[in-house]
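User: What would this chain look like folded?
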Amino acid sequence: MHLPGYMSGEIRMNKTIKVPCINLCNFLQKQNVDYVEYYVSDIQGFDLEALKTLKSYIDKRRIKNITCEVTKNSHQKIYGDLPDNSKNGFDLLLGENYECVASGWGILADGKFDEVPGEWLEMDCKWRVKD
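Assistant: Here's the prediction, encoded as structure tokens.
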């Protein structure tokens, strides 16, 4: 479901709440998880920040597939003062060990790069570890 105005950036945040969170890398290590088959996130502008906590897994190629909601490169800072969540930012983090294999919206199929409507500010992208 898409909220009217959401994809065009017309909705503004008017309230901030604090929620407890954990570092994903620390959690995986405490659970003795050495390898992740699929990582998927859609956390409203914090996808890249959350993924950065897994840099040691990324560097060691211990995540096979990564799918995240990303901001189109042409629409930076759609969530105000939140950190970068652009496709470029993901490519910088993942570029050495991963390749983008799909983009669009919803369930992504490898090798399929679907355009989302021009007024949408975000899209889903999938990366796979390079062979």
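The first strand starts at residue 36 and ends at 41. If you want, I can go into more detail on any region.
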